[in-house]
Every structure is written in C-alpha cells, then in structure tokens.
C-alpha cells in the first residue's frame, strides 16, 4: 500500500492520516502487531527504463500511539509534508527500526534527477 514516510537515523516513520477510512482498526496495524518483520519499498518509475530505481528497507516495526517518539514522528512528518502542516495526522504511527537496506538502479548515470 502507498505510504508517506520520514526517516530519523535508523528509523522510518509513517502515520495513519485523516483521509477517509472505513474503520480505525486498520489491517496494516493488525499485521504489524502480529508480525513485526516488515519491508518498505520506495521506487521511481520512468518511461525510460534506464532511470528506474528502488530502495527496500527491511526491519522490525511497532505501533506508537502516545509518547515522545510518537510526537517526534508526527513532527518529522509535518516538516516533510506540507499537507500535514494544515491537517496533521493523529496517528497511530508505525515505526520501522531499519535492519537492512537493499537497492537497485536501472543504469548509473551522472545525469540522475
């Protein structure tokens, strides 16, 4: 599923935002609580396939609903995403403690965006 995220050192944060949802009991939160081993994939698509790339983060996730780390994660997201400044997410937050990075690029060039 698509997410927005912020990094802080070795931790990736993503929050449940205010977009309409059928329920606040989201399957992604149920999944993280049941099985904290997760992967997050960030990719770039381009019609020119030599410009394709991806980065995958593997780690252990946990759900934050209150506290200092929760507030820090929300602040990082507000700073990164203008939309969150006017409509900040209320959480919960998923924190992924990064254990491994993997990446791939279609072709390494000096004119990368």
Structure, explained:
By secondary structure, this protein is an alpha+beta fold. Helix content is 23%, strand content 36%. The chain has helices spanning 27-34, 68-80, 82-86; strands at residues 6-8, 11-15, 37-44, 53-64, 93-105. The chain has a five-stranded antiparallel sheet with strand order 1-2-5-4-3. 16% of the residues are buried. It is built from three helices and five strands. The protein has one domain (6-104): Roll (Pnp Oxidase, Chain A). The chain is globular and about 45 Å long.
Summing up helix and strand content along with how strands pair, one would put the structural category as alpha+beta
Q: What is the overall number of helices?
A: 3
Helical fraction equals 10-25%
Number of strands: 5
Give me the oligomer status. Answer: single chain
Overall 3D form? globular
Query: Could you please say which CATH topology applies here?
Result: Pnp Oxidase, Chain A
Superfamily (CATH H level) name? Electron Transport, Fmn-binding Protein, Chain A
